[in-house]
């Protein structure tokens, strides 16, 4: 470990999704000999199988490298808008940000969003053009966009290829030369460490990822968390290489991990400050934590088997530790029993969460159709946040319903501008203004700014904007405010029974179209039974769309040959009566396949 705090550099890599952050990090680990060549593999910092399969980073991942006598602490961050909270947490632990821009795509929406996060934290920005080895790379155009955005000089922008390794050593040299060393005092009575992430390890218990701001923490030290007031002992302490590498102590300015000895997940919260046990009179000043993240999308999560509720609760507690943007509370549903109402930052966040429950904890779950959080104002003056369609059951009690709006930024080549504007208007977007990013090039690009309802971009907006812009558009959004909405609760009935998990909140003027779409999807996905199944969409008891799923027909006359026709009629009549009886008794026995929910969601 470096004795001298001036020999430490802490930095993060920021970029839009798929601009090459993890590949660049791979080359840095190779150049600094942090990972043995035999153990090297692509996306080495992406520890989850799901990250490697999808080729995206979901979790921030720190690693410590030794290079030219300096200790370089890198945090690789995600690029997708749903995981920007991970990025903002990483930035509180570093002094420098490498702003990575793909030379074939130029600046995208998430590049801008991440840059603004870094500027808010007053970090040193090192701009880098990546993927210069690709035939489609347009380095001069990309550099012009960066100059226009940052107001820097052309010679300050570095060029590199994360794939071939070209220019990567220059980036490391620039981090050493341009970055400020961390500030902090190592001889304080009470050390202070910020928890910027944490993880539950089967063998070690709760592991906190920390940045030491002041003082020194050693193995065996008694510690106290300032927000939760929980006390424990440092069972192990060290740095990331990128696996846990025990060093026995961490000094001011360092980034590393602490095995806290906590068994309860809730005791070790992200954003908390670790220090020594203190009395209130000598209380040290806690470090500025993180602002509470506001979930945007809510969905019910229920176990398919009622007896696995405790397993689900335990799994969610452990995931919550590792994913501090997740919010959940217990919920009971008439049809699905006990489960949880969970809040997410977006649909990808929900999808990844579902996938992690299935893979890491082997749980079978039912997910209800996601909706945004509506604000309802009742006649008695009470204000409530409605996260489920059931809260809108009685319209006679309500004065008004408000929905969340977001500020949407769309980066798109000028030639597709018309298509994007039309799509945004169809989705109830209100146009704000247009910024021109690159005018003097063959392919000028613009940033369109819109105010738009969160519900409008919740389901298929991302796919549609990619299709109308031939894949070139990128989006980013931020919460704006609540505005009045004309929405109603739509129930879906299968065989005359209301299926609670399929209830949705829809705009009144779109109810008929959406109801028709949902019953058609049900008609295509529900397996046929021996009786006719009625499929209906209804608002306040009034059916607005309906379909019938015809019965499977068994040939009861197959064993007859010859004889009187009345025998044939008799058997058919008997079958008809049987079907009628089954239909009256068979309510609720219609099985809805789990993928139906996904199909309705992505309709």
UniProtKB/TrEMBL annotation:
This is Elongation factor 4. It catalyses: GTP + H2O = GDP + phosphate + H(+). SUPFAM superfamilies: EF-G C-terminal domain-like, P-loop containing nucleoside triphosphate hydrolases. GTP binds at residues 18-23, 130-133. Pfam families: EFG_C, GTP_EFTU, GTP_EFTU_D2, LepA_C. GO terms for biological process: positive regulation of translation. Required for accurate and efficient protein synthesis under certain stress conditions. May act as a fidelity factor of the translation reaction, by catalyzing a one-codon backward translocation of tRNAs on improperly translocated ribosomes. Back-translocation proceeds from a post-translocation (POST) complex to a pre-translocation (PRE) complex, thus giving elongation factor G a second chance to translocate the tRNAs correctly. Binds to ribosomes in a GTP-dependent manner. The keyword Lyase does not apply. It is a peripheral membrane protein. It is an enzyme of class 3 (hydrolase). GO terms for cellular component: plasma membrane.
């Amino acid at each position: 470990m470096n004795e001298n705090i001036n020999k430490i550099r802490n930095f993060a890599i920021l970029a839009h999704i798929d601009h090459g952050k993890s590949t660049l990090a791979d080359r840095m680990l190779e150049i600094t000999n942090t990972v043995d060549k035999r153990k090297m593999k692509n996306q080495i910092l992406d520890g989850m199988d799901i990250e490697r399969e999808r080729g995206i980073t979901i979790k921030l991942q720190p690693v410590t490298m030794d290079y030219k006598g300096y200790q370089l602490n890198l945090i690789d961050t995600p690029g997708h808008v749903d995981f920007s909270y991970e990025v903002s947490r990483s930035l509180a632990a570093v002094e420098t940000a490498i702003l990575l821009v793909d030379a074939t795509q130029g600046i995208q929406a998430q590049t801008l969003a991440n840059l603004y996060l870094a500027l808010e934290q007053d970090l040193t920005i090192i701009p880098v053009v990546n993927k210069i080895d690709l035939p489609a790379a347009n380095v001069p155009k990309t550099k012009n966009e960066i100059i226009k955005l940052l107001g820097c000089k052309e010679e300050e922008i570095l060029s590199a290829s994360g794939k071939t390794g070209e220019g990567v050593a220059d980036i490391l040299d620039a981090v050493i030369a341009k970055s400020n060393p961390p500030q902090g005092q190592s001889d304080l009575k009470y050390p202070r460490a910020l928890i910027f992430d944490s993880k539950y390890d089967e063998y070690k218990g709760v592991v906190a990822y920390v940045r030491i701001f002041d003082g020194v923490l050693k193995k065996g030290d008694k510690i106290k968390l300032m927000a939760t007031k929980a006390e424990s002992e440092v069972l192990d302490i060290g740095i990331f290489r990128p696996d846990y590498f025990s060093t026995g102590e961490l000094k001011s300015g360092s980034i590393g991990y602490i095995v806290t000895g906590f068994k309860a997940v809730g005791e070790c919260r992200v954003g908390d400050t670790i220090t020594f046990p203190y009395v209130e009179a000598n209380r040290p000043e806690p470090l500025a934590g993180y602002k509470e993240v506001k979930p945007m999308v809510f969905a019910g999560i229920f176990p398919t088997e009622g007896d696995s509720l405790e397993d689900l609760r335990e799994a969610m507690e452990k995931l919550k530790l590792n994913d501090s943007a997740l919010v959940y509370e217990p919920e009971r549903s008439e049809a699905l029993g006990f489960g949880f109402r969970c809040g997410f930052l977006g649909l990808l966040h929900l999808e990844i969460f579902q996938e992690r429950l299935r893979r890491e904890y082997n749980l079978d779950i039912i997910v209800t159709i996601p909706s945004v959080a509506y604000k309802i104002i009742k006649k008695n003056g009470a204000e409530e946040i409605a996260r489920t369609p059931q809260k809108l059951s009685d319209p006679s009690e309500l004065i008004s319903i408000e929905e969340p709006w977001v500020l949407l930024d769309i980066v798109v080549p000028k030639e597709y501008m018309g298509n994007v504007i039309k799509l945004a208007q169809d989705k109830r977007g209100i146009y704000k203004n247009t910024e021109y990013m690159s005018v003097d090039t063959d392919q000028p690009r613009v940033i369109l700014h819109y105010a738009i309802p969160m519900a409008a971009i919740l389901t298929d907006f991302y796919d549609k904007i990619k299709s109308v812009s031939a894949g070139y558009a990128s989006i980013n959004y931020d919460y704006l405010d609540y505005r009045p909405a004309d929405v109603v609760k739509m129930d879906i009935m299968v065989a005359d029974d209301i299926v609670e998990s399929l209830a949705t909140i829809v705009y009144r003027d779109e109810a008929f179209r959406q109801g028709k779409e949902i019953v058609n999807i049900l008609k295509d996905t529900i397996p046929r039974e021996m009786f006719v199944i009625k499929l209906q969409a209804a608002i306040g008891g009034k059916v607005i769309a309906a379909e019938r799923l015809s019965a499977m027909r068994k040939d009861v006359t197959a064993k007859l040959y010859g004889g009187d026709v009345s025998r044939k009629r008799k058997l058919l009549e008997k079958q008809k009566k049987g079907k009628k009886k089954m239909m009256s008794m068979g309510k609720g026995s219609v099985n809805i396949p789990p993928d139906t929910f996904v199909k309705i969601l992505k309709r």
